[in-house]
Amino acid sequence: MDWSLVGILLIMGTAGGFAAGLLGIGGGMVLVPFITMIFTARGFPPELVVHMAIATSLATIMFTSLSSVRAHHKHGAVLWPVVRMLAPGILIGSWIGPWIGKQLDASALALVFALFVAFSATQMLVDKKPQASRDLPKAPGMFAAGGVIGIVAGLVGAGGGFISVPFMSWCNVKIHNAVATSAALGFPIALAGTLSNVYFGLGETRLPEYSLGYIYLPALVVIAAASMTMAPLGARTAHKMPVAKLKRIFAVILYALAVYMFWKAFA
Questions:
Q1: What is the per-residue pLDDT across 167-180, written as a single tens digit (0 to 9) for each?
Q2: Phi, psi angles (nearest 5°) of residue 70
Q3: Does the reported pTM lie above 0.90?
Q4: Domain boundaries, the chain
Q5: Phi and psi (nearest 5°) for 243?
């Protein structure tokens, strides 16, 4: 047992879980670059490390979201009717996202991820709320919105919060409700995306031992255990304090991670 690896993964899971509960983002934007670094250092096939990092991160969100949404639900903040309306499109989109990722080589996928993280960090740093100018759309519009959220989240291995939270805010949903509902949406995103990554990775012969499709199981177990512990703490923090300052700090961290993924794309 490589205890140094376990320790690093525990730290990553702790940070990712807290971020998931605090900001409703699923933790993937933090986890993917660090998992990429670890898989690269351990000599995993270079053409697969980004795919595996995204798939493993997405799988952890299944557990993080359950832990986070339980805390949000206790505060009565989750809008379950909204979850039910967005979930069908999300399930389909989250299956398609990893399929799109499979068509990309590691450099292109790293570039897509870096651009997404840089955009998300800018959105967080500016902290400009979309003007609530309309109500939530009817079923067809919610299905389409869910599909877009699912495709992007499945492609980059994130929980979709940076799309779903602004979308709900734009539709007159209060920010605490939007964050809590986004946390609940993390589970269907992660479930469909994980099954997709398993399915499309089963035929890959270059994967390291203990992989299930593109998911590296030892990392999944350790990160999920840590993130499930910290996600409720992040969710409780979100209800007790203004998170604007924490968002700015987190945005700077995301910029640094985006730079690494840009380097990975062009190295």
A1: 888 888 887 888 88
A2: -60, -45
A3: no
A4: 3-266
A5: -105, 10
